[in-house]
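[job 4471] stage=fold_predict status=RUNNING
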Amino acid sequence: MNKDKHKHHKRSIKEPLVSQIKEHKVTFVVYVVLRLIVIAVLLLSLFDRRFENVFVCSLTLILFLVPAFFQKNFGIELPTTLEIIIMLFIFAAEILGEIGAYYVKVPLWDTMLHTVNGFLCA
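[job 4471] inference complete, writing structure tokens
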């Protein structure tokens, strides 16, 4: 009887997660791809002993959780497009901008990033 209860508990936790993934496939794919890239950059930075970049990658992974945190704790349902824009903005600012040095290499990167993001979010 205890095993049946344990199986039911596992199923009840897994079912909402699977339904959320099915409902928001594009968001899930973007989220997974960006996380994998950030984790790869984090590992490369760790091997290169660039601990500042490791910190930036860690911060980025935490920031990726912000939309889900707001949705869960405040009951705010963000549109899928806005959620993807937020994740791409975080990625562009932290990974491309800071670690990839786009702020230095690409003229007006900061201005372009904030202008495009402002229009998209509006």
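[job 4471] summary: The two ends are 54 Å apart (CA to CA).
[job 4471] exit 0
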